[in-house]
Amino acid sequence: MTKPSEKLAELIKKAIEDCELTTSEYNAILAQADEDKVLDSDERVLLQQLQEMIANGTIERVPG
Fold first, then answer.
1. Which of 48, 50, 52, 62 is the most buried (most CB within 10 A)?
2. What is the domain partition of the chain in residue ranges?
3. At a CB cut-off of 8 Å and minimum separation 6, what does 31 contact?
4. How far is Cα 9 from Cα 19, in angstroms, rounded to an integer?
């Protein structure tokens, strides 16, 4: 995993641990994914997994 991918994984891991994703956390995740202007395969997989967990209710989107 590249350094940006590791940071992205850490942000997503926090959302998974508390089962909540605030708007500011979501924006931070998107900003991290776009930081180097390249969405590599690791980042793509992480973002896809996050979206699936949001869609199936594992992670709840909350204000904040």
1. 50
2. 3-62
3. none
4. 15
What pLDDT is attached to residue 30? 94
End-to-end CA distance of the chain: 29
| Residues comprising the chain, all counted | 64
Which pTM was predicted?
0.88
pLDDT tens per residue, range 16-52: 899 999 999 999 999 999 998 989 999 999 999 999 9
* Dist. CA 35–CA 29, nearest whole Å: 10
For helices 41-55 and 23-34, what crossing angle results, to 10°?
160
3-state helix, strand, coil in the chain (%, to 5): 65, 10, 25
